[in-house]
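=== RUN LOG ===
request id: a7f3
mode: sequence -> structure
chains: 1
length: 147
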Amino acid sequence: MFGAFLLLHILGATVWTGGHLVLAITILPRVLRERDPADLLRFESAYERIGIPALIVQVLTGLWLAYRQVPDVGAWFAFEHPVARLVSVKLLLLAITVGFAIDARLRVIPHLSDRNLRDLAWHVVPVTIVSVLFVVIGVSFRTGWFY
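=== RESULT ===
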């Protein structure tokens, strides 16, 4: 069971992080340069169909994996325990991701035009950085980088 959940978690991370890297590195610069949100909206509508389920899979499997590592949920924020510290950092990164996603979905994307593309960039770049940090922290569970 552990292996299956870990595989699903990693596949979700691959889709989520890879999609955001493609968006931030290839699509966003072109959209900002041309001041035309059409490419970004096309990517967003296509990516959302696999990106959001990937994030949901990550959250569900991540909670299961965290519980397996630290069965006392109350200890997830015990910073003196190295594994619990990693769990809490991942939960913080998740909260940041959710905050940006809600703001983008409710405030930025519905009114997206050539005039507010920079607002969306201020969402895409941090979420991309956070998604890479998710992977780095995830790898640290096995490597001990942050123990």
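=== NOTES ===
The chain has a mean pLDDT of 94.
Helices lie at 2-34, 38-69, 82-108, 117-143.
=== END ===
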